[in-house]
Specification:
CATH topology of the largest domain: Rossmann fold
Radius of gyration: 24 Å
Shape: globular
Structural class: alpha/beta
Distance between the termini: 54 Å
Helix content: 40-55%
Number of strands: 13
Largest sheet: 9 strands, mixed
CATH class of the largest domain: Alpha Beta
Strand order of the largest sheet: 1-13-12-11-2-3-4-5-6
């Protein structure tokens, strides 16, 4: 999980290095100042696992807890993201953190969002490029409009290499003659203003403003390279410790690893480092002890195939496992990040039947196998065991005849009832809906509420979080006099 890098091309291989974690972590901690550290981190791919689509992302619970502790004791904790800054702040949800978004072009401070003037001047050019953009028909590319850019996500396409080439050509044509550039990322291309603003300029300004005794930056992608460079420059100019930590992935740029002082394996590695930092710097803290990679787990029910939050609920948020058991096994047992990412990219919310989901997984596997022969075998004892599930349905004795009664019952039923009516209902009904939405529509004649509940993504939050969202939606309907309450 953890490896040291003393220079370009000299990295200890990340895979299989979990046994060395205590030694390497202790070395990193020993280089940091006793107090006054600044921690700056990217979000997606660093403290948040890469998701099939941006709206499905979540912050690793251990990372969030560590940030909450660190922000109380350090002079600077900052999140620098490619997301819109308001979205980044909402996703992380830790007060006191400094937030920068849109790759340094946006900042949130004192409750106010600002866009860099030079970027704001180019927004019209970005919109002009978007109007010119011609995407391949039926490609599965997701277009994301940001305050000063257009992002084209192709993680869910079947042939990412071919899609990348087609998108690169389309972006080049769309930006011809305009003061824009195309910024690559992890299975995303983004049309952005060609301005001298990036994560590096933000990191440099924050360090100059807060004067920390040392600094640590964590990142996983191309857009983190300027911040790595800024940290190195700041360290040389001040003579203070400036460490750069790269988050390894099969999609990450080699240049990031070459510039890094340390490398960790994925978001779990980041969680280990941040937890060790919070233990050290918090009042009464302790030095980090031995840690190990999360154990391989296999769950054999339908909920496991669709990433059931029943098991995840103990975390308080969705956990850091890949989106299904197959992806988890490919990454953990096979050590195949490419196959793991391909299987994890299947967006389960799009499927109302297991047959459709099976077809999507088959397509990913066929595309992977077509690229070359199998190169890895699972070690003895880590074979994938296919399980069969049976569901037992038991009446709760609770029923509702009106929206007001439904609101009352919603607070009394167990999460298992929510799981049955929200998750299994999609498969049982064979539609992109659930029992609650169907009842709101067909019985209470509340199409607005029915549509809102049908759009809730049950795979991106815990069941208690889902209960809160349902309650909020019902409360809004009740305030508007829905179904006469």
């Amino acid at each position: 999980m953890f490896a040291d890098e003393s220079g370009a091309g000299s990295a200890v291989p990340v895979a299989g290095s979990g046994a060395r974690l205590p030694e390497q972590l202790g070395r990193l901690l020993a280089q940091l100042p006793a107090a006054g550290l600044a921690v700056l981190t990217d979000i997606d791919g660093t403290i948040s696992p890469i998701a099939p689509r941006p709206s499905a992302a979540f912050i690793d619970p251990a990372c969030r807890r560590a940030l909450e502790r660190l922000v109380e004791v350090l002079p600077l904790v900052a999140c620098l993201s490619g997301r819109a800054v308001a979205e980044a702040a909402e996703l992380v949800g830790v007060p006191g953190v400094r937030y920068s978004g849109s790759h340094g072009m946006e900042e949130l401070y004192g409750g106010h969002t600002t866009l860099a003037p030079e970027a704001e001047e180019r927004v019209a050019d970005v919109l002009a490029a978007a109007a010119r953009l011609r995407l391949p028909d039926g490609s599965g590319v997701m277009v994301e409009r940001k305050p000063a850019s257009i992002a084209l996500h192709y993680r869910q396409t079947l042939d990412v290499a071919a899609t990348h080439r087609a998108l690169a050509e389309a972006c080049a044509e769309a930006t011809t003659g305009l003061p824009l550039r195309v910024l690559p990322g992890r299975l995303v291309l983004e049309i952005v203003p060609d301005v001298a603003v990036d994560k590096g300029t933000v990191a440099a300004r924050l360090l100059q403003t807060h004067h920390p005794a040392g600094a640590l930056y964590l990142g996983d992608d191309v857009t983190d390279l300027p911040a790595f460079a800024a940290l190195a420059d700041w360290g040389k100019a001040t003579g203070r410790t400036a460490l750069r930590l790269a988050v390894h992935s099969s999609e990450g740029p080699p240049a990031l690893r070459a510039m890094a002082d340390y490398v960790v394996e994925g978001v779990p590695g980041v969680a280990t480092v941040l937890t060790a930092l919070s233990d050290r710097y918090s009042p009464g803290g302790r030095d980090a002890g031995p840690a190990s990679a999360p154990p391989l787990q296999q769950r054999g029910d339908v909920g496991a195939l669709l990433r059931s939050p029943i098991a995840d609920g103990a975390c308080g948020h969705a956990c850091t496992q890949p989106a299904n058991d197959f992806a988890f096994w490919a990454r953990g047992a096979l050590g195949d990040q490419v196959l793991g990412e391909a299987l994890a990219s299947v967006d389960t919310i799009q499927y109302a039947t297991l047959a459709g989901l099976r077809d999507a997984l088959d397509q990913r596997l066929e595309a992977y196998l077509a690229a070359g022969p199998l190169r890895r075998m699972a070690p003895p004892g880590q074979e994938f065991h296919f399980m069969k599930a049976r569901t037992f349905v038991v009446p709760t004795g609770l029923e509702a005849h009106s929206l007001g009664e439904f609101r009352e019952m919603l607070g009394r039923v167990t999460v298992h009832s929510l799981y049955f009516h929200m998750f299994e209902a999609r498969l049982r009904l064979g539609q992109l809906t659930n029992d609650f939405s169907a009842w709101f529509q067909d019985t209470l004649d509340l199409p607005t509420l029915a549509n809102e509940v049908a759009r809730l993504d049950p795979y991106t939050r815990t069941l208690e979080g889902l209960r809160r969202r349902l309650t909020q939606a019902v409360d809004r309907a009740l305030r508007s006099g829905g179904a006469n309450a």
